[in-house]
């Protein structure tokens, strides 16, 4: 299943003109505040009636202004996950999960409730009411309620924004399973580069109501012009596998034959992962460094150098493990004579790889 979105709409302060395709998996809408992310989600959900456009999931048309076709929100077969769980406080978890199923068409493809409950790890919560759930537990129940409504499309509008870092770390693996085990497209809004790197099958980068760039997370996050927080969100995304766990508390990863080390992670040997390495955590040397405490030193070749308006530059380095990005000063670029084709070494501190930047590899759509 795939989602096609074409929307034109004028609002005070923004002129929305959007066209993109979202395949099965998680398509992330990524951009600064005011770029149009929530407006797009509201239009897809039927909470906003655009002046022109068409939105469809395969041959299921939600609206088409040229044809005069408009499905009201309650007939759009959507699962909506909000920033807060928005569970019914007077119902138990079991009853909240069942609520969506009451409105699903009889001929709709239905998710197995036992599978959804197992996937989300909420079996022990079924008889509780929302007041007795943590923020992370509420969001897991909200995901389950959306799934059990037999949706043709799932919308998630910054579903982790109201959670602290510990609860975000709890929920992210469930969204990864949702991405890999559910056949419907998921449209996901976030400001977080870490969430994009871990979850995105594809990314639609937005700016001032327009699509600035669309593509894999590894390409979009490498472009400082599309990151909501600028150069601080720029980073490389590598596909790796867990090679070993060592007694000193480190996990060894394999990336195309290259060994990388990071603090121990809760994944089994052989698991395939994606890791995000922020550009600001990479330093460069024009020769093999010696006498360093850093364990991750990768030999590579400069692919490109992009200088910013200030004193900084982003250097792209091709290594056997994949392409890395380094945020350095323009003075360093000149001192090291960094230019395309020049050999160099990239150094990544082991402790620079944060747990939120490590997640399951995206399944191919």
From TrEMBL:
GO molecular function: ABC-type transporter activity; ATP binding; ATP hydrolysis activity; molybdate ion transmembrane transporter activity
SMART domains linked: AAA
Coiled coil: none
InterPro entries referenced in this protein's UniProt entry, alphabetically: AAA+_ATPase (IPR003593), ABC_transporter-like_ATP-bd (IPR003439), ABC_transporter-like_CS (IPR017871), Mo/tungstate-bd_C_term_dom (IPR008995), ModC_ABC_ATP-bd (IPR011868), Molybdenum_import_ModC (IPR050334), Mop_domain (IPR004606), P-loop_NTPase (IPR027417)
Record keywords, A-Z: ATP-binding, Cell inner membrane, Cell membrane, Hydrolase, Membrane, Molybdenum, Nucleotide-binding, Translocase, Transport
Gene3D superfamilies: 2.40.50.100, P-loop containing nucleotide triphosphate hydrolases
Ranges of residues in domain Mop: 291-357
Domain (ABC transporter): residue spans on this chain: 1-233
Pfam families referenced in this protein's UniProt entry, alphabetically: ABC_tran, TOBE
Enzyme Commission number(s) from the entry: 3.6.3.30
Cellular component GO terms held in the UniProt record: membrane
PROSITE patterns linked to this entry: ABC_TRANSPORTER_1 (PS00211), ABC_TRANSPORTER_2 (PS50893), MOP (PS51866)
NCBIfam families according to UniProt: modC_ABC
Protein name per its UniProtKB record: Fe(3+) ions import ATP-binding protein FbpC 2
Gene: fbpC2_2
């Amino acid at each position: 299943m795939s989602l096609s979105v074409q929307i034109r709409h004028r609002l005070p302060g923004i002129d929305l003109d959007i066209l993109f395709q979202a395949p099965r998996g998680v398509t992330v809408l990524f951009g600064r505040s005011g770029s149009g992310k929530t407006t797009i989600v509201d239009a897809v959900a039927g909470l906003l009636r655009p002046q022109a456009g068409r939105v469809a999931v395969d041959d299921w048309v939600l609206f088409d202004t040229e044809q005069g076709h408009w499905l009201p929100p309650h007939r759009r077969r959507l699962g909506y996950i909000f920033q807060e769980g928005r569970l019914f406080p007077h119902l138990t978890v079991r009853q909240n999960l069942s609520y969506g199923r009451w409105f699903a068409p009889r001929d709709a493809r239905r998710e197995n409730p036992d599978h959804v409950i197992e996937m989300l790890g909420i079996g022990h919560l079924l008889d509780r009411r929302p007041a007795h759930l943590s923020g992370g537990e509420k969001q897991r129940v909200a995901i389950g309620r959306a799934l059990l409504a037999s949706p043709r499309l799932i919308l998630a509008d910054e579903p982790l924004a109201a959670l602290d870092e510990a609860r975000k770390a709890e929920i992210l693996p469930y969204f990864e399973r949702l991405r890999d085990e559910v056949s419907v497209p998921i449209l996901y809004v976030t400001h977080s580069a870490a969430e994009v790197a871990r979850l995105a099958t594809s990314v639609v980068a937005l700016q001032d109501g327009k699509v600035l760039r669309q593509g894999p997370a590894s390409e979009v996050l490498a472009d400082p012009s599309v990151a909501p927080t600028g150069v601080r969100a720029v980073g490389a995304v590598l596909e790796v596998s867990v090679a070993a766990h060592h007694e000193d508390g480190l996990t060894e990863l394999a990336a195309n034959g290259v060994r990388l080390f990071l603090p121990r992670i809760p994944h089994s040997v052989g698991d395939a992962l994606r890791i995000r390495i922020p550009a600001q955590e990479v330093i460069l040397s024009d020769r093999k460094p010696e006498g360093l405490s850093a364990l991750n030193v990768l030999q590579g070749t400069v692919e490109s150098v992009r200088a910013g308006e200030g004193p900084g530059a982003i250097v792209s380095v091709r290594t056997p493990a994949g392409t890395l990005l380094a945020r350095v000063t323009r003075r360093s670029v000149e001192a090291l004579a960094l230019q395309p084709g020049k050999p160099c070494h990239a150094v990544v501190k082991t402790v620079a790889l944060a747990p939120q930047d490590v997640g399951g590899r995206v399944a191919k759509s």
